[in-house]
Amino acid sequence: MPHFLITNDDGVNSPGLLALAQALREIGDVSILAPHRNWSVTGHNKTMHKPLRVWSVTLADGSEAMTTDGAPSDCVALAAMGLIQYPIDVVISGINNRPNLGDDITYSGTVAAAMEGAIHGYPAMAVSIDEGEPYHWQTAARAAAYLAQMLLQNGGMPAGALLNINVPNLPEGQIKGYEVTRLGQRRYHDELVIRHDPAGKPYYWIGGGPPSSVLEPGADVHSLAHGFVSVTPLSLDMTHDRFLDALRGWFSQPLNH
Ligand SMILES: [Mn+2]
């Protein structure tokens, strides 16, 4: 039986994590170590300046999980470095309660946990569902289980690779299929909201509406918008390969003053 380590960034009591655990228990053994609070949009953390506590909690279905005051990426690091002694086959982070598309992945605690898995040498996947009530968690949970089985059947992934999966928030029968995609483009509509505290000092909110998507075929945003599960291979190596030669060219001539 494969052994799955589950974490997330929405917190150990999120319904997405429970749905994922229940789907994976049908195909393997599951260990859960997830943050006690919501760490959404906190990026990739390594807690080095304070100790971390780990304790047991009971999930809504009566099953046991471990939780911590650390970040999603800390959960994976703790497990990898010996907190979970039974060898881990796949690290799965999610199911996040909103999509992680395009540049979202740089903010995402869900994706950061999968990145931490890849750093420790595990095949890792981040799983997110499109936003909106009612949530079709089962659709995303079964997609995650299917992709985990496919990953194991294919012998894992290259070093430094991880999968970023986004699932439409639809009943399972309405999913059109799976598409392998590139990261697409998100347009953020952030605006700075300035208010004043009782002492008259300004404080700031980064506000604005939800991001919109540039619907280019082949992009994660396009697949999700069209009812497909988007499967994007990500790389820990963030080198911009196409820019390397041009950048070297900068150094082949002196600066003009
Ligand atoms: Mn989240």
Q: Briefly, what is this?
A:
Helix content is 26%, strand content 31%. The chain is an alpha/beta fold. The strands form 2 sheets. The chain has a 9-stranded mixed sheet with strand order 3-4-2-1-5-6-7-11-8, sandwiched between helices.
**How far apart, in Å, are the first and last alpha carbons?**
66 Å
Total helical segments: 6
* Biggest β-sheet: strands ordered side by side in the sheet: 3-4-2-1-5-6-7-11-8
Binned strand content: 25-35%
CATH fold label: Stationary-phase Survival Protein Sure Homolog, Chain: A
Question: Over all CA atoms, what is the radius of gyration?
Answer: 20 Å
Taken together, the total number of domains comes to 1
Unreliably modeled segments: none
Sheet bearing the most strands, described? 9 strands, mixed
Mean pLDDT: 97
Structure notes:
It is a single chain. With 257 residues, the chain is of the alpha/beta class. The chain contains six helices and eleven strands. The protein has one domain: Survival protein SurE-like phosphatase/nucleotidase (Stationary-phase Survival Protein Sure Homolog, Chain: A). It is 26% helix and 31% strand. The longest helix is centred in the middle third of the chain and has 17 residues, at 137-153. 40% of the residues are buried. The site of manganese (II) ion has 6 residues, from loops.
